[in-house]
Amino acid sequence: MPSGNFAVTVDPFGPPYVWSEDEGFLISAGPRNTVLISPDDLLVRRLHPDDKRRSGCCGPAGHDGPNLVCNCGAELATESSDCWTAQVVRLQPHAVVRTDGGA
Questions:
Q1: What's the N-to-C CA distance of the chain in angstroms?
Q2: Taking a C-beta distance cutoff of 8 angstroms, is the pair 76, 96 a contact?
Q3: What is the residue-averaged pLDDT of the chain?
Q4: How far is Cα 66 from Cα 45, in angstroms, rounded to an integer?
Q5: Is the dihedral of CA 35, 41, 45, 51 positive or negative?
Q6: Cα 74 from Cα 47, distance rounded (Å)
């Protein structure tokens, strides 16, 4: 995702994963309608305290659930920025609210 841009995806992403009889393997049943932004556009990056959420080689892979938290500790987003993943942050739909106008 290029810096300064965003997108919304309706496809589910992340855990929980459920068995699909049609596909014959596990598929994501995670949140839908996530807002995608560039990792470079994050103002604050606070890692999840559970290190199992931060698996990856060169950065977080993003497949183990939300790995970024708010200052209050609420799960905020999932960053995928490993060497083999897309470089993107998926904001949790229940944790992010759109406002009109200034912050």
A1: 23
A2: yes
A3: 90
A4: 12
A5: positive
A6: 11
Does any domain span residue 50?
Answer: yes
Number of domains in the chain: 1
In this structure, what DSSP letter does residue 29 have? -
How confident is residue 23, by pLDDT bands cut at 50, 70 and 90?
Answer: confident
Give this prediction's pTM: 0.83
Cβ contacts of 22 within 8 Å, gap of 6 or more: none
CA angle 2, 7, 12 (to 5 degrees): 120
Residue 100 resides in a domain = no
Asked if residues 33 and 46 have their Cβ atoms less than 8 Å apart, the reply is no
Task: Show the domain range for 50.
Answer: 6-91
